[in-house]
């Protein structure tokens, strides 16, 4: 068992590793991250996760629900630290996993991965408390500077594979009419389907094999009166891009998914623009890099001032246009607490994923992760690596079919880890005192 | 209904505090009196210094929760919601005012009871009585406590009863009783009761809780949290462990000893026992109790001369108890940590006191300690001093130089070169940055400490020449290892330690250049450091390349002819292009950093660089096709070359007043060998005004640099528009630059108008089709001219830096804009508070039942509801975050 594996074991048990090991880990991570582009290319299948905020036991729950590394590929969209009591354990574990399985796990930067923010919201104090000096905090902040700013998920399948019923869904009923592709599905932490939406079938050929599936019909488990599981979209799928008479439009393509912590920036009109940022710096207070980490979508037109004092608010038209120009079908982001764990906006053009259940140990929200399946219909996918060649991969739809289909999305919703598995959250007391 | 009360006689000396942003703000010292005028009872405090100034005038009402804490404090909340505190010099004075307040309130209450319709309620709450504290009654007690906690009146009444009846003390024995009976139910009830009582948020109750006889019983009950039925904490074990308290020099005063103990317990309550359930008010009560305790402890220590003498005598070289020395360092470290939270004057006093007893010797002892942890501790103390007042520290250091003693900086520099522990090295580098930074941030310390303070300190100010000389000498010493790279044939065999050292040194150098470029010129020039940094671009370690790259990127953003010459003098750009070649077309950090550098040159249209790069490396550029950056550079160059010299006249006319050598007309720009020694000399001695200009521009430019691909970047220099560019081909670079420098003051005006240059607005093209970029962009643009805002943003690093740079900016533009830079202490506290602010609930966290059903439907009530909640929480977070923004 290598040192790294031992460190992973230890961190999984929520026990810290010695300072010297942290230092070594951070240096290794730095070597790795320096090779990543500002926008990392990631191939489906991948599970996208939002804010963690130092809620270590809930991160463990996340792995339990979503599958363990390296069996499941993960993409974490930042905000690993602050607020919760186990920022160190959470971040160091994720970093260990990153170093151990570089191609299986992707970490991008959130607005809390910053010196300024962490001195205010708890990570700095936690480092001092747990290691007695700010050294570990410095090492971690150095790593923060190297984290990628975004990721782009390629090769996601437009429809979901049926949920495997192995996770205890015994209420499985027989398949209803084949009313279309399974587009989104929401599962609870026991793997039971609680909601599904379908999109009208588009293709006449090439997927006869996937037609006969066994999936639960849309069920309204909570059954609050007056609520329906109405599909959120009708008509043409995608983000409104329409075929322009190009003969090749028949090949439907699942658009890429851009993942950033915050959102879009008025300074960034194409994904390639993100690549022109020198990201190795403290998160600035304005400019493209700041916006990517700080902005929020909002029900407005165009751009608006953000009440956060950094980044912008952006409306559905912005998202639609950005997705169209970049051949994207979806922007996945985190950054905002959503009580349901996830929230799609603007006709599914953007989704907020939030992965810290019972945020701050008291918000009472559930958390979610987003699984994107692999599109197996179009053959194998390109091997993914850090420092991707071919910059416009999946971006800038020149000549490619214009019909961009949104990927099938499976949300797994989960609650905070059970009390008895996580112990009592508390900060570590100081050891000795003079005053 | 006249008040038949006697106001107290005499004036009591008192300090008035107001809680601002979770920090006790000192409103001043004065004399406190109680008055009744026209039936209105009031407390007045008149300023001690200016007798007519009223520091405090507050009306006593029956509802204000006045509390007496310890012997000398009265704390209450104003009608406006502001928390106030009076800290009396004498316990007796406090007692008199307290008596007055109490009798007034009681009187008012009795009046109210007589004619107030609410009196029934009040009456009933007044008479809250808990059943006798027995195991059998616990269920009843729990219910009554819970019910009473629901309303403010109930909480007040309950608090009064608990205090009057000393109820908590009576509950304590039940804990062991229940444990003996192994009655988990009762223990859970006791835990709930204790939680509720603590969350009543009453100072007196909390002070009772941490008292010696009570504390173990209370935390004992809290060990059995019904929310974690299978767990039992071990608070008692932790808190009863006497060995955790260490004494280097015994503190004899029993009162202080008690305070130390209760402070420690309060912290434990705050961080561990109650961490999960604390609500905002209780959190601030705990914090303010801790604050006042610490203030008294520290005051006691520093006023206790025999104690300090004994403490510092531990470091006498003849004294050999190493362990005790280490403990003493730790002790001082803790004092320094506490001092961070104190108000500037008391902190200044404490540090001055320590320093006069020999704190520097302690730091010198610690930083040379064989144990890295102790070295870290030593530097932490130093950093606390630097954070407190860098000017004072530099003063001490320069004084040492003046007296021909070895200054602290030399010690630190030697340590930095030799240090093997990377954490310590990191801290050393930071400390050196601050100590050698000769730019004096006047504003901050003055604002913090008042005018007296400045007088004391001004004696420390030494002549500018002296500062420069010291800076040069220290730089020489500091960058010596960097200089020695010249002798290395290859950088392929760098050791890990060397790599770390070089990256720290280059980082420090970058910082110096950015902070005060003209002082740094000497060092860079005489030690010829730039070629050394360029050499590092060839190192195999990518992060080292990045650091070197950052240095040159900073030079570029300065738009300073001296530094421009440095870069065009040699093969720097060639080396950078090599990196591009090595990395392309891979998309990685190093590659992006290079692209950003060239994008910046293109966007800012920095002609000397465009000319130099294209002329010298045209072929190389042409071969890079995977991005259009380099083709655009060439295009830009060709545009400059392509047109005749029609615009010459404008340039000449601008240049008339400048002393620069006239260009040879028609002669092409020659690139590298442009500056001769004489000219460099000239640059080195450019006059002051020039330097101010550049200084200012530096800070502006750096801000832009951080903006990365920002389209809102404004042209920093008034280069002629593209149409006029043609003139350029006949002029050497300094000319173009000089023309810009000749009119630095117009910079602001130019920026107001959107630049007509098509290229500058290029990055904003996303908005071409999208709705217009929000107003804020233009607003930002405007704000950028008001350097202050811009400069604050620079301060991504330590906060002191922001004030430093803002000074130069503000000084130059003569704009009066106050920067509110909160002390870090308040920021931190505000932040922590913010955490709690996210969700405020006085009850233990409740899991809201969430319908995980088909909430996707945007019309469903459920979804809408969730949305509202989420946006609310977000707003809270927003506010917290933006608060942090501002304070940073």
From TrEMBL, chain A:
Key words, A-Z: Hydrolase, Manganese, Metal-binding
Segments of skewed composition (Polar residues): 194-215
Gene3D superfamilies the record matches: 3.60.21.10
Domain Serine/threonine specific protein phosphatases: 108-113
Keyword Hydrolase: yes
Recorded superkingdom: Eukaryota
UniProt-annotated stretches for the region Disordered: 190-247
GO MF term set: metal ion binding; protein serine/threonine phosphatase activity
EC class of the enzyme, as a word: hydrolase
Low complexity bias locations: 223-236
InterPro entries: Calcineurin-like_PHP, Metallo-depent_PP-like, PPA2-like, Ser/Thr-sp_prot-phosphatase
Reaction catalyzed: O-phospho-L-threonyl-[protein] + H2O = L-threonyl-[protein] + phosphate
Active site location: 112 (proton donor/acceptor)
Keyword Hydrolase: yes
E.C. number(s) listed in UniProt: 3.1.3.16
Gly residues: compositionally biased ranges: 237-246
PANTHER family: SERINE/THREONINE-PROTEIN PHOSPHATASE PP2A-RELATED (PTHR45619)
Membership in a protein family: Belongs to the PPP phosphatase family.
Protein name according to UniProt: Serine/threonine-protein phosphatase
Annotated source species: Penicillium cataractarum
TrEMBL record, chain B:
Domain Serine/threonine-protein phosphatase 4 regulatory subunit 3-like central: 140-639
Main location: nucleus
Polar residues biased stretches: 857-872
Transmembrane keyword on record: no
Subcellular location: Nucleus
InterPro entries recorded: ARM-type_fold, EVH1_PP4R3, P4R3-like_central_dom, PH-like_dom_sf, PP4R3-like
Protein name: Serine/threonine-protein phosphatase 4 regulatory subunit 3-like central domain-containing protein
Source species of the chain: Penicillium cataractarum
Residue ranges of domain PP4R3 EVH1-like in the record: 11-110
GO molecular function, one term: protein phosphatase activator activity
Entries under PANTHER family matching the protein: ATP SYNTHASE GAMMA-RELATED (PTHR23318), SERINE_THREONINE-PROTEIN PHOSPHATASE 4 REGULATORY SUBUNIT 3 (PTHR23318:SF0)
GO biological process, alphabetically ordered: DNA damage response
Region called Disordered, residue ranges: 704-888
Keyword Ribosomal protein: no
Keywords in alphabetical order: Nucleus
Composition skew (Low complexity), residue ranges: 758-768
A Pfam cross-reference name: EVH1_PP4R3
Comp. bias (Basic and acidic residues): 873-882
GO cellular component assignments: nucleoplasm; protein phosphatase 4 complex
């Amino acid at each position: 068992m290598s040192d790294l594996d031992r460190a992973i074991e230890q961190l999984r048990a929520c026990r810290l590793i010695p300072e010297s090991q942290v230092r070594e880990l951070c240096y290794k991570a730095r070597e790795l991250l320096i090779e990543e582009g500002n926008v990392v290319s990631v191939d489906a299948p991948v599970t996208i996760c939002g804010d963690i905020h130092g809620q270590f036991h809930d991160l463990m729950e996340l792995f339990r629900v979503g599958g363990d590394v390296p069996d499941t590929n993960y993409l974490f969209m930042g905000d690993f630290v602050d607020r919760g009591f186990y920022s160190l354990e959470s971040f160091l574990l994720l970093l260990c996993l990153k170093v151990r399985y570089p191609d299986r796990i992707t970490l991008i930067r959130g607005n809390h991965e910053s010196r300024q923010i962490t001195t205010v919201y708890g990570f700095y104090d936690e480092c001092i408390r747990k290691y007695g000096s700010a050294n570990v905090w410095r090492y971690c902040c150095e790593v923060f500077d190297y984290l990628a700013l975004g990721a782009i998920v390629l090769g996601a399948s437009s429809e979901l594979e049926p949920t495997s019923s192995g996770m205890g869904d015994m209420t499985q009923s027989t398949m209803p009419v084949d009313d279309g592709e399974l587009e989104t599905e929401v599962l609870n932490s026991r793997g039971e389907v609680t909601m599904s939406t379908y999109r009208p079938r588009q293709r006449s050929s090439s997927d006869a094999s996937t037609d006969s599936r066994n999936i639960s019909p849309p069920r309204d488990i909570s059954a609050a009166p007056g609520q329906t599981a109405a599909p959120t979209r009708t008509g043409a799928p995608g983000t409104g891009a329409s075929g322009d008479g190009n003969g090749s439009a028949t090949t439907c393509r699942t658009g890429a998914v851009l993942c950033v912590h915050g959102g879009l920036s008025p300074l960034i009109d194409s994904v390639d623009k993100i690549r022109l940022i020198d990201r190795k710096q403290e998160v600035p207070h304005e400019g493209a890099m700041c916006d990517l980490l700080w902005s929020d979508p909002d029900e407005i037109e165009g751009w608006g001032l953000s009440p956060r004092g950094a980044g912008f608010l952006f409306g559905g038209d912005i998202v639609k246009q950005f997705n169209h120009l970049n051949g994207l079908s979806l922007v996945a982001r985190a950054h905002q607490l959503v009580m349901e764990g996830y929230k799609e906006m603007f006709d599914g053009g953007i989704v907020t994923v939030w992965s810290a259940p019972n945020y701050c140990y008291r918000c009472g929200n559930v958390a979610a992760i987003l699984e994107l399946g692999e599109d197996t219909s179009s053959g194998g996918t390109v091997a993914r690596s850090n420092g991707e060649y071919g910059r416009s991969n999946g971006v800038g739809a020149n000549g490619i079919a214009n019909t961009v289909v949104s990927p099938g999305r499976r949300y797994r919703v989960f609650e905070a880890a059970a009390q008895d598995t996580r112990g009592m959250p508390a900060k570590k007391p100081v050891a000795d005192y003079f005053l | 209904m006249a008040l038949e009360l006697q106001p107290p006689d005499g004036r009591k000396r008192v300090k008035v505090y107001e809680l601002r942003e979770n920090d006790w703000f000192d409103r001043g010292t004065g004399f406190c009196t109680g008055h009744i005028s026209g039936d209105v009872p009031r407390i007045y405090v008149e300023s001690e210094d200016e007798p007519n100034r009223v520091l405090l005038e507050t009306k006593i009402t029956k509802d204000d929760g006045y509390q007496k804490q310890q012997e000398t404090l009265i704390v209450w909340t104003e009608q406006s919601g502001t928390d106030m505190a009076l800290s009396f010099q004498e316990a007796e004075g406090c007692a008199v005012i307290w008596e007055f307040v109490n009798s007034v309130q009681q009187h008012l209450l009795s009046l109210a009871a007589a004619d107030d319709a609410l009196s029934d309620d009040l009456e009933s709450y007044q008479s809250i009585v808990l059943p006798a504290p027995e195991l059998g009654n616990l269920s009843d007690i729990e219910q009554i406590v819970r019910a009473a906690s629901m309303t403010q009146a109930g909480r007040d009444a309950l608090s009064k009863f608990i205090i009057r009846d000393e109820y908590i003390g009576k509950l304590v024995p039940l804990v062991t009783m229940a444990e003996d009976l192994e009655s988990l139910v009762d223990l859970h009830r006791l835990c709930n009761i204790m939680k509720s009582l603590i969350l009543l948020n009453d100072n007196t109750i909390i002070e009772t809780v941490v008292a010696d006889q009570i504390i173990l019983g209370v935390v004992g009950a809290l060990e059995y949290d019904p929310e974690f039925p299978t767990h039992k904490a071990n608070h008692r074990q932790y808190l009863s462990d006497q060995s955790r308290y260490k004494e280097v020099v015994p503190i004899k005063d029993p009162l202080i000893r008690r305070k130390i103990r209760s402070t420690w317990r309060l912290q434990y309550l705050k961080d561990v026992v109650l961490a999960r359930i604390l609500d905002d008010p209780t959190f601030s009560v705990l914090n303010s109790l801790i604050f006042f305790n610490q203030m008294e402890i520290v005051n006691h220590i520093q006023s206790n001369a025999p104690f300090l003498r004994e403490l510092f005598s531990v470091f006498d070289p003849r004294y050999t108890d190493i362990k005790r020395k280490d403990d003493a360092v730790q002790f001082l470290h803790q004092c320094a940590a506490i001092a961070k939270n104190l108000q500037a004057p008391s902190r200044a006093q404490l540090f001055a006191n320590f320093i006069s007893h020999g704190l520097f010797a302690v730091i010198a002892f610690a930083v040379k300690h064989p144990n890295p942890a102790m070295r870290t501790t030593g530097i932490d103390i130093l950093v606390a001093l630097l954070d407190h007042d860098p000017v004072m520290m530099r003063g001490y250091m320069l004084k040492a130089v003046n007296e021909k003693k070895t200054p602290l900086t030399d010690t630190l520099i030697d340590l930095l070169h030799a240090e093997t522990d990377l954490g310590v090295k990191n801290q050393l580098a930071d400390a050196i940055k601050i100590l050698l930074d000769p730019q004096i941030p006047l504003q901050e310390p003055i604002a913090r400490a008042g005018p007296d303070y400045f007088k004391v300190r001004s004696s420390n100010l030494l002549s500018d020449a002296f500062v420069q000389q010291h800076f040069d000498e220290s730089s020489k010493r500091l960058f010596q290892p960097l200089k020695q790279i010249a002798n290395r044939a290859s950088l392929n065999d760098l050791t890990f330690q060397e790599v770390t050292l070089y990256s720290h040194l280059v980082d420090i150098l970058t910082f110096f250049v950015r902070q005060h470029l003209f002082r740094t010129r000497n060092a860079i020039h005489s030690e010829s450091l730039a070629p050394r940094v360029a050499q590092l671009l060839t190192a195999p370690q990518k992060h080292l390349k990045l650091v070197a790259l950052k240095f040159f990127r900073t030079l570029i953003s300065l738009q300073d002819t001296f530094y421009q010459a440095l870069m065009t003098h040699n093969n720097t750009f060639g080396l950078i292009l090599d990196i591009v070649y090595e990395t392309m077309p891979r998309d990685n950090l190093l590659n992006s950093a290079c692209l950003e550098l060239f994008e910046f040159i293109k966007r800012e249209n920095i002609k000397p660089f465009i000319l130099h790069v294209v002329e010298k490396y045209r072929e190389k550029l042409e071969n890079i096709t995977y991005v259009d950056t380099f083709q655009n550079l060439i295009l830009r160059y060709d545009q400059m070359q392509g047109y005749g010299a029609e615009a010459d006249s404008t340039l000449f006319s601008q240049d008339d007043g400048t002393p620069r050598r006239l260009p040879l007309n028609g002669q092409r720009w020659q690139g590298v060998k442009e500056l001769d020694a004489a000219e460099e000399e000239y640059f080195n001695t450019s006059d002051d005004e020039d330097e101010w200009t550049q200084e200012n521009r530096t800070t502006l430019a750096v801000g832009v640099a951080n903006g990365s691909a920002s389209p809102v970047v404004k042209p920093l220099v008034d280069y002629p528009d593209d149409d006029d560019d043609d003139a350029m081909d006949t002029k050497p670079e300094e000319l173009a630059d000089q023309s810009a420098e000749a009119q630095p003051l117009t910079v602001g005006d130019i920026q107001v108008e959107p630049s007509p240059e098509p290229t500058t607005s290029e990055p904003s093209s996303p908005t071409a089709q999208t709705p217009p970029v929000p107003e804020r962009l233009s607003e930002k643009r405007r704000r950028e001219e008001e350097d202050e805002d811009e400069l604050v943003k620079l301060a991504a690093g330590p906060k002191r830096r922001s004030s430093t740079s803002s000074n130069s900016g503000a000084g130059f533009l003569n704009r009066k804009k106050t920067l509110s830079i909160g002390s870090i202490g308040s920021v931190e506290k505000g932040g922590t508070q913010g955490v709690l602010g996210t969700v405020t609930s006085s009850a233990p966290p409740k899991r809201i039942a969430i319908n995980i059903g088909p909430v996707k439907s945007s019309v469903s009530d459920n979804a809408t509801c969730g949305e509202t909640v989420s946006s609310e929480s977000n707003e809270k977070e927003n506010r917290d975050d933006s608060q942090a923004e501002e304070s940073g």
